[in-house]
Amino acid sequence: IIEKFLFERDQIIILAKEKVGKSLFSQFMALQLTCAEDFLGEYPIQEETNVIYLQAEGKISQTHSNLKNMLKVVPANMKRFLLLYAPAIAIDTQAGFDEVYRAIKANPLPIAKNTVFFGDSLYMLMRGDLKDDEDSKLFVANMRILAEEFKLTTAIMHHSHRPIRDMKNYQTIF
Q: Edge to edge, what strands does the sheet with 50-55 contain?
């Protein structure tokens, strides 16, 4: 989909520390996907791609402001962009999965070879604990069902772990 960067039906994690711009980076990528504008001016996007952007954290007003400002300088085909706002939606539950499924089904995008689903952010897309195997398996299983049903490439944002301080030696350990 994005040469040397994002491949059809791929599943990726966009991982970085808190407040470094994962959402802005993803929103920028999403806009460029909709109009086949080279990503970062360097990585070709072969054709217009549909985007589903599920925002589960933060304020929707901030996202609207970000997108409005980006659209002043970034070309986009907003007919191919679906923004869903569902604070703390739990895709690892049947009710959360059903809500996301219905929202995608109710808002069909134009026919396209590819659709990229952005989930922002992993910890808000789950009710359970990321460290719990069963909760994580349910999340992954439900994301796979969505990916199969809607032929999605998925990109999930996630905060990297905060460093833990070793108070005895005053060092940061990871």
A: 11-16, 152-159, 115-120, 50-55, 81-85
Pairwise CA distance, residues 126 & 138, whole Å: 9
Strand 164-166 relative to strand 115-120: parallel, antiparallel, unpaired? unpaired
Closest listed residue to residue 127, CA positions, set 84, 89, 161, 94: 89
Out of 126-130, 132-136, 139-143, 164-168, which region has the weakest mean confidence (pLDDT)? Answer: 164-168
Which residues does residue 166 pair with via DSSP β-bridges, in sequence order? 171
Compute CA 94 distance to the chain's CA centroid, rounded to the nearest angstrom.
Answer: 20
Angstrom CA distances, 94 to 82, 91, 102, 142, stand at 22, 7, 12, 9
Among candidates 106, 95, 100, 92, which has minimal Cα distance to 142?
92
For 20, other C-beta atoms within 10 Å of its C-beta total 11
Helices (H), strands (E): how many in the chain? 4, 7
Report the alpha-carbon distance of residue 165 to residue 89 in Å, rounded: 32
Q: Are 5 and 42 in contact (CB under 8 A)?
A: no
pLDDT computed for residue 164 by the predictor:
47
